[in-house]
């Protein structure tokens, strides 16, 4: 309650014609009606407000009493007045989207935030706070904390084969901001047409807003079709080479080489979204594309899958030629990212706690994936599973007779039963062909997996019998 002794923004004109008490009452009323003083807000005591405004206390007592009598305030003896509910006459707040409760969360690419390493994170934050020199609490380097950029350069080189000099790394608010920034910079250096994966990570607003024209290119089990990308006359691309989202293929060695050759010949740029490479279950991850063409690839990573989306920490490793344009662009966007959190992540990386957490999560996700595949094999044995053993979801190819509408009906009927999953329609621009469901296992426990798959199988069978109907 101590913050409630804070001042109240109320202006009084000492030389005006209107009496001071009247001004207080009118000012408060206007603020309440306008919704500036919101229902439930506790106002200063009569003594505090009188002292703040430099007027006599009885005037405040009268003003409060009158507003209470009119129903705008709730006044109780010995307590500060509270703004009554229903007193504001303003437009209702923007309607909040009401989500139906999700019982089984099988949406793709969702990490288990319930297993966020709270202890390690709290201890990292404490260590950083105890050690951070006051000088580091200013705005600092626009590109992000030097400590995190250095820790990432080491980590990305070691784990992903990324060629990363800390001075080429930019810390962003997740991949979302990194992508927006990369698109604007691609446009600024002259690119106009960029290839995007179809189906792909479907939020294309960043591409459109940057003034880039997107060219949808099909993907298969070997990632994006590089020949079609080249033939389409694109000048750059946004891709997920290590684990195509959402189908799940890995860009083949042949396609990688063709893509790199083409990029070098045409001075193109690619944004490599390396969102979940830490989670590969059958063998070591293929190295990042950036390691083959550090001059032509903007590499993007994120802590959203490995730790939690709520951290909003991502990073870009930028080709040397793009460092200056990126820096210039960033200067127009912001003054940096939260420093303490960045250094806490650096601490986890440098002490090995990040690797330990990843090893633990990899084991958990691998077991869940296996359990999910076993259940699917038992309930829907004829359905093909696509994609590499990686990431946080599997791709389920639906029976060939099912249409786009069937797929949408399966998704919505499951959602009505509390099971959230996604279909191909959610991610495709033009992609037709076999229908698919993307079934995440990041957020479901073993027991929930079995029940979820039973629900899923029921929905697929119902669609096959044409029982789902709109
Ligand atoms: C393909 C892909 N890339 C990147 C991200 C991460 O985005 P962000 O770092 O903004 O949370 C996601 C999250 O769902 C994703 O699915």
From TrEMBL:
It comes from the Bacteria. Gene3D superfamilies: Type I PLP-dependent aspartate aminotransferase-like (Major domain), Winged helix-like DNA-binding domain superfamily/Winged helix DNA-binding domain. GO terms for molecular function: DNA binding; DNA-binding transcription factor activity; pyridoxal phosphate binding. Coiled coil: none annotated. Residues 18-86 form the HTH gntR-type domain. The keyword Transport does not apply. Keywords: DNA-binding, Pyridoxal phosphate, Transcription, Transcription regulation. InterPro entries: Aminotransferase_I/II_large (IPR004839), HTH_trans_reg/aminotransferase (IPR051446), PyrdxlP-dep_Trfase (IPR015424), PyrdxlP-dep_Trfase_major (IPR015421), Tscrpt_reg_HTH_GntR (IPR000524), WH-like_DNA-bd_sf (IPR036388), WH_DNA-bd_sf (IPR036390). The keyword Transcription regulation applies. In the C-terminal section; belongs to the class-I pyridoxal-phosphate-dependent aminotransferase family. This is HTH gntR-type domain-containing protein.
